Amino acid sequence: MVPLNILAHTATTALGAGLEAQRSALRGRRSGLRRNDFGHDPLECWIGRVDGVEDVALPAHLLSHHCRNNLLAWLALQQDGINEAVAQVVARHGAGRVAIVMGTSTSSIGATELAYTRLETDSHGAAQVPQDLRRERIHSPHSLGDFVRAATGLQGPCITVATACSSSAKVFAQAARLIHAGLADAALVGGVDTLCGSVLYGFNSLQLIAPTPCRPFDVRRVGLSLGEAGGYAVLERCGAGPATPLQLQGYGESSDAHHMSAPHPEGLGARMAMQAALQRAGIAAADVGYLNLHGTSTPANDGIEACAVAALFPPSLHASSTKGWTGHTLGAAGIVESVFALLALSDGLLPGTLNSEQPDPACGPQIRFDNAQAEIRHAMNNSFGFGGNNCSLVFGKAE
Q1: Per-residue confidence (pLDDT) for residue 225, from 0 to 100
Q2: Chain centroid to CA 300: how far?
Q3: Which of 273, 284, 307, 333 is deepest in the core (most CB within 10 A)?
Q4: Of 45, 165, 214, 363, which one is the catalytic site residue?
Q5: Any catalytic annotation for residue 139?
Q6: Which pLDDT band, with edges at 50, 70 and 90, does 117 fall under?
Q7: Average pLDDT in the 381-390 region?
Q8: Is 363 in the active site?
């Protein structure tokens, strides 16, 4: 694969808005998780909630897109020079040659939930959505992509990927295909997911939510902590603009379709995705300096992923889950944890696994609980979704 230059990248999570907030919390091992305070009757659990979302003000021309998910999308869009990088690629190629590829799991379903809780009765006795929520464009899985297009003015292909927890990792692969096929010269990729009742109570019904902060790969783990986040990256075809220090160098995808919500018991899809990403990047497993694991803290997921990693990578690999910092941000997990992989490349900061103290003996030596500092040339990110939708990404320093 011909690498793609990364002009800018950012993440907004429970740790704060922008790269510096993520960097500071990772380095200081400060978690963003807190007791659940979302909704009228909160479940007894811990969440990664982004502060200040409700206070975000959209410009007047975007008010028809107003919902909590798009408020977070706007907040994240203002960080770390993303708008400036978009302006640069538009100046070089034109707005019609810059694609938008966004990832989400539930998009703006929170607004749809609100509409149903506030149903009104018309003069004929039929239920109807209240007037202030009769905005069809937000009651759609494509609400996020539609909003980002309106917010940026980009006119290239606009796609919303919704493959559960792999969504905003797969956006990198989708953008790479668009650029390599000649359909675009650059792309704004990213993902946003916000907390809502469907997510909290849905995962609770699957008995996957822990009552205490999640502890991935700990032998005592019992479940995940949910979170919300938004993030972006601007990608450009190599040679089409100035060289950048960081690149997308490979991606691998698989769909093992083993089960609606459980991973393949032998990690087949996970191994296939990681192997394909390494092959596209043209590197060996031993070349990877840091691997951000999917690591949700559920008993099945962590054990199976650790076995798949141990089958491919040497014991010297530093692999970790960062969900103890942010919670599992679902459709935004891919972009957030790709940003963490990029921080490992740029800063040499290799995060450990927060809250975890007792290693599971079934997991290999690649799983690290403590932070480390090291200069590396390649970093990976794993994002595995329900239904066996898997994606692995390889990022690297430009030669």
Answers
A1: 98
A2: 21
A3: 333
A4: 165
A5: no
A6: confident
A7: 89
A8: no
Residue 60 burial class via C-beta count within 10 angstroms: exposed 0-12, middle 13-18, buried 19 and up: exposed
Supply the pLDDT for residue 260: 67
Catalytic residue among 66, 93, 264, 294: 294
φ/ψ region of 387 (left if φ > 0, alpha if ψ in -120 to 50, else beta) reads: left
Which single residue is written with the structure tokens 């329900």? Answer: 386
Question: What phi and psi values does residue 258 have, to the nearest 5 degrees?
Answer: -70, -45
Helices marked H in 313-371 — which ranges? 323-326, 333-347
* pLDDT given at position 132: 86
Determine contact, residues 367/353, Cβ cutoff 8 Å. yes
Query: Which run of H or E residues covers position 71?
Result: helix 68-77
Give the least confident one: 155-164, 209-218, 255-264, 337-346: 255-264
Helix (H, G, I), strand (E, B) or coil at 226: strand
Q: Between the ranges 37-41, 73-77, 113-117, where is the mean pLDDT highest?
A: 73-77
Q: Is 279 helix (H, G, I), strand (E, B) or coil?
A: helix
Q: Are strands 246-255 and 349-350 parallel, antiparallel or unpaired?
A: unpaired
Structure-token pair, residue 8: 């800018």
**pLDDT score of 261:** 63
Q: Of these residues, 9, 93, 328, 378, which one is catalytic?
A: 328
Residue 322: predicted pLDDT: 98
- How far is it, in rounded angstroms, from Cα 311 to Cα 321? 18
Which segments of 94-211 does DSSP mark as H helices, in order? 109-117, 143-152, 167-180, 197-205
Which two tokens mark 270? 């996970």
What the block records as the tokens of 398 is 């430009």
The Cβ of residue 197 has, within 10 Å, a number of other Cβ atoms equal to: 18
Q: Which helix or strand (DSSP H or E) is residue 275 part of?
A: helix 268-281
The Cα–Cα gap between 15 and 324 comes to 11
The predicted-structure confidence for 167-222, as pLDDT tens digits, reads as follows: 999 999 999 999 999 999 999 999 999 999 999 999 999 899 999 999 999 999 99
Res 135 pLDDT > 90 = no
Tell me the backbone φ, ψ of residue 203, rounded to 5 degrees.
-65, -35
| 238 belongs to the catalytic site | no
**From 10-19, 118-127, 275-284, 389-398, the region with the lowest mean pLDDT:** 118-127
Type of residue found at 139: H
Residues in the chain: 399
Do 245 and 346 contact (CB within 8 A), yes or no? yes
268-281 vs 299-312: helix axis angle to the nearest 10? Answer: 40
